[in-house]
Amino acid sequence: MTGFCFMFRADLDVPFDEKYQLWYGDDDFEDRVRAKGLLVARIEGLPIDHSAMGSTRLIDNDTVQAWIVNDRQRWETRTRATFQHLAQSVTA
């Protein structure tokens, strides 16, 4: 899945964590979709033009970097907690 453009059915009943500001929100969502046993797919050849950093370049770089740091910390905290929970359930 690619974060700059993705779509999903609204009735998936999978929460999208809107607390991510720039990065990792798509990774988090994809993990949640897969955890429900649902398929994540990439469709080649769709006519979508992407301008790299198109809107992000309009934001002060220090702000963008702070968002990235915060998002990475949020992602690592979430994934660490998930893996710890999985390890506990396997050994229990």
Helix and strand arrangement:
Elements: H1 25-35, H2 61-91
Please provide a written account of the structure.
This protein has one domain (10-43, 59-91). It has helices spanning 25-35, 61-91. The model has no long low-confidence stretch (mean pLDDT 81). With 92 residues, it is mostly helical. The longest helix is centred in the C-terminal third of the chain and has 31 residues, at 61-91.
What is the compact description of this entry?
By secondary structure, the chain is mainly α. It has helices at 25-35, 61-91.
Descriptors for this entry?
92 residues; 0% strand; 46% helix
Please summarize the sheet with the most strands: none
Strand content: under 5%
Output the radius of gyration: 16 Å
Helix and strand succession?
HH
Shape label: flat
Measured between the Cα atoms of the first and last residue, the distance is: 33 Å
Q: Which spans of ≥5 residues are poorly predicted at pLDDT below 50?
A: none
Q: Please give the share of residues in helix.
A: 40-55%
Oligomerization state? single chain
Number of helices: 2
The tally of strands reads: 0
